[in-house]
Amino acid sequence: MLAHHKGVLTVAVVLALISSGLGLAQPMVINQLIETVGKGPISHLAWTLVVLLVVSSIVSAVQFYVLTVTAETAVKSTRHDLIGHMLRLPISVYDRFRTGDLVTRLGSDTTIIREAFTGGLVSAIGGLATMIGAIVLMALVDVFMLALVLTVVTVTLIAVIGSSALIQRYTKRAQEAVGDLGAGMDRALVAVRTIRASGAQNKVEADLRDEADNAWRQGVNIARVAALIFPAAGLALQGSFLLVLGIGGARVAAGTITVADLVTFVLYLFMVSMPLGSIFGAITTIRAAMGAIERIEQIMGEERETSTGVQARPAHSVRFDDVSFAYAEDSPVLVDVSVDIPAGTKTAIVGPSGSGKSTMLALIERFYDPTSGRLYLGDQEMADLTRESVRDVIGYVEQEAAVLAGSIRDNLLLATPDATDEQCWWALDQVNLRERMEEADGLDTVLGDRGLTLSGGQRQRLALARMLLMDSPILLLDEPTSAVDSQNEQLILDAIDASAADRTLVVVAHRLSTVTDADQIIVLDDGRVAG
Description:
This protein has 531 residues and is α/β, with parallel strands linked by helices. The protein has helices at residues 6-36, 43-86, 91-96, 99-141, 143-190, 192-198, 201-253, 259-300, 357-364, 387-392, 408-412, 421-430, 434-439, 456-470, 486-499; strands spanning 318-328, 331-341, 346-350, 372-377, 380-381, 394-397, 406-407, 446-447, 474-478, 504-508, 520-525, 528-529. The chain folds into two domains: 3-300, ABC transporter type 1, transmembrane domain (ABC transporter transmembrane region fold, Up-down Bundle), CATH 1.20.1560; 318-529, P-loop containing nucleotide triphosphate hydrolases (Rossmann fold). α1 packs parallel to α4 (99-141) and α14 packs parallel to α15 (486-499). GO terms for molecular function: ABC-type oligopeptide transporter activity; ATP binding; ATP hydrolysis activity. The chain crosses the membrane at residues 44-67, 116-137, 143-167, 225-245, 265-290.
């Protein structure tokens, strides 16, 4: 994650070493001050100490800023990579992951990683350098007391590292639980009108509360382990101070060390204890981040949709040659389908639910590839073509027409960003939406999330207008009138007729009114062509 920021990290490490060196010099100056009091002038030593304190603070501030900005930049890069990767995964991956869980990995998981670097790495780098230097200098003052301190610290550190592995495990579970909650809430908000109309608020609320309770339980597990780690670390540090003060006082009384040496040792012990506390916290935070990194790597490890092959030539016909397909190995959806869709014709695909109608369109769009058999675009086998070039010659409107939040213009320009306003109005004319849009703010009319300010029929017609702007020679429509009333149905049928001019049209339909003027009707039953 930080591999692309080695230069900045090197600067940060150098600053950390400088800050540590300046800090470590301070007890030595204090030692000289104590030894010199009453024996000679001390003003030069006092000024030296002030300069060390000021410069050390400035360097620490710069180091903190550099590391924090680097961590933020690294997280931003990770989010960019995730966004690009998620949008280019095979459609089959989205069948396996829930939307809310994917969103959680992009938002919550990357935030945990950022906190680990800003709250963990920032503290640990400088702290580790200071701690090592302080231990070396403590050895020069009194090896015996250092050995006692290191014994206590080492035992505590081993216990902390061992316990932190549990935090990594629980954090991964907690993020998965948050992902489940997000997915459930996403589904509920999409269907909020249905939930209200059905009076199902209490049931949905209970289900979501169960998801939230699961996330809470995982969070409590993390808190339980952390509650053991931090008091243990604090107890070890307090015990070290008491040990040093007790034994150090006895050694001063015995004349083994001087008071100045004891003060110096205690100051270095402070320098060990403060970063040691930060390191204990950093271990916990970084372990938590490792759980989040596992979830991000799970997505980044998914191969992107392949895009190899030659460019598709402009074509108006499609042919299925003994095509079979299954989403799961033991559940075939299409079996030995052989169909010709001639250029310039209107082909209707009908059949009961689950017979494979929408799957045929998904195969033409190359969202999936056939399990067996061949699929042709014109005289070219689709398996030999790049997916992008196939989609360039095919317009597709799915059953639940996707409308993005934003304006009418934003939606129309999704696939054709260079289209002019005149072309946009032409497309709206073709689907009988111009009058509706002129009543509002024209092309700048803002739509609600998922186009909820539009009726079902208006969303379908807007999707048709967007497809018309693509000017694709082949159009695929998946049940365009399934969720509209008779008035909107006729408007959509008129729009389909307008869009079909000089194009090949493939329509999946339930209603006979949609297919009465079709040039051919393909009847599917249990994945096979029945007529």
